[in-house]
Amino acid sequence: MRNIFYYNTMIGELGIEENGLAITKVFLVDKDIEKGPSEKNETELLKEAIKQLNEYFDGKRKEFNLPLAPKGTEFQKKVWNTLKEIPFGETRSYGEIAKLIGNEKASRAVGMANNKNPIMIIIPCHRVIGANGKLVGYAGGIDIKEKLLNLEKN
Question: Can you give the residue ranges of the Methylguanine DNA methyltransferase ribonuclease-like domain (predicted)?
C-alpha cells in the first residue's frame, strides 16, 4: 500500500508519497492530481522526508539522504540520476545533461524526462535551465523554480 501525507511549505502544499521502502513522489498539491489508491498515513519515512525538505527550505541542507524509487522508463531514470549529480546552487542546461548521459542530441528527450520527474526538489529538476540561461519548463511553475534557485544561491 502506498502512503501519502500533505504538508504546508514555503512553496505551497506538498504531497509526499512512499511505498513502504522509499519515497515515490513529491509534488505540489495544486499542480498535480493524485492517481491511484493511497492511504493518508504519516509514516516515519514521510516524517523524515518533510524534515529534510524543511531543512532545505531553511537553508540548512544541501543534499538529501532518503531512499528514492521514482517510477519511469530506463531513460528517464538515467536522466533523473544525472540530475541528482548537479551540485547545490549550480545549474545545467538540457544539452549538458544530454552530454552527461552520453547522448548529446537528446536535449529534448532530457526535457521531457525532466518534466516527468515524480520527486521534485529531491531530484533537482529545478536546476536544469535553457541553453540561453533562461528558466524554462518547471512542473511547479517558473516562479517556484526561481524561488528554489534563489534559495540555493543565498
Answer: 6-70
